[in-house]
Amino acid sequence: MWCSVLRWRACRQAGARFRIPDAKTETGVREVQMSPDLVEAVIQQIDRLRRAGLPTGSGAYLVPNVRGGRISRQCVAKIVREAAEAATAAVEAKGLPPLSHVTPHTLRRTYISIALLAQLRRARAQGPGAGPRPRAGVRDRGVLVTTR
Fold first, then answer.
1. Is 16 strand, coil or helix?
2. What is the pLDDT of residues 67-121, one digit of tens each?
3. Residues 77, 104 contacting (CB under 8 angstroms)
4. What is the pLDDT of residue 96?
5. Are 135 and 107 within 8 A, CB to CB?
6. In 10 A of CB 4, how many CB atoms?
7. Half-sphere exposure of 82 (CA within 13 A, CB side)
């Protein structure tokens, strides 16, 4: 769960990217593009941390625990669980079905699926032969799985 170990020095707001150390790549580092909404959330996070008197220097954690140190994966899971419970109550109040079981890993898979779909849409807009190619008839939880 890289959000629990991400430090401010890994966040490049000018380029709207996270530099993820210890990634499973040949170089050991991976860069992840931030969406405009995530950039706004990071800016709001900086403001919240400063108002709370928590560290925001380059070595400080982007998502710290209450003392400014590294947040545990159990705490992240608790936050996600509580947010999912609140979201379920909100959708049920509108007469919609409840959310299925949500975990940090569920959110990771959802993010990856959305990113793949966005990449596929960009490639289609660029014309034939560009970007990832869908594998014929292969779907993963209702999302088209791509190769390349």
1. coil
2. 888 888 898 889 889 988 999 999 999 999 998 888 888 887 787 787 778 777 7
3. yes
4. 93
5. no
6. 18
7. 6
Burial 101-126 (b: 16+ CB within 10 A, else e): ebeeeebeeeeebeebeeebeebeee
Separation CA 53–CA 61 (nearest Å): 13
Q: Checking DSSP bridges between strand 143-147 and strand 29-33, what pairing results, if any?
A: unpaired
> What is the sign, positive or negative, of the torsion defined by CA atoms of 70, 72, 76, 79?
negative
- Name the one residue in this structure whose structure tokens are 């490049």: 12
Structure-token pair, residue 125: 């807009």
- CA distance readout (Å), 90 to 10, 29, 84, 103: 35, 39, 10, 18
pLDDT for the residue numbered 5: 67
Q: Give the sheet arrangement for strand 29-33, strand by strand.
A: 11-12, 17-21, 29-33
Strand 17-21 with 133-140, pairing: unpaired
Which residue do the tokens 């959000």 mark?
A: 3
Per-residue pLDDT at 79: 86
Measured in degrees and rounded to the nearest 5, phi and psi for residue 43 equal -60, -45
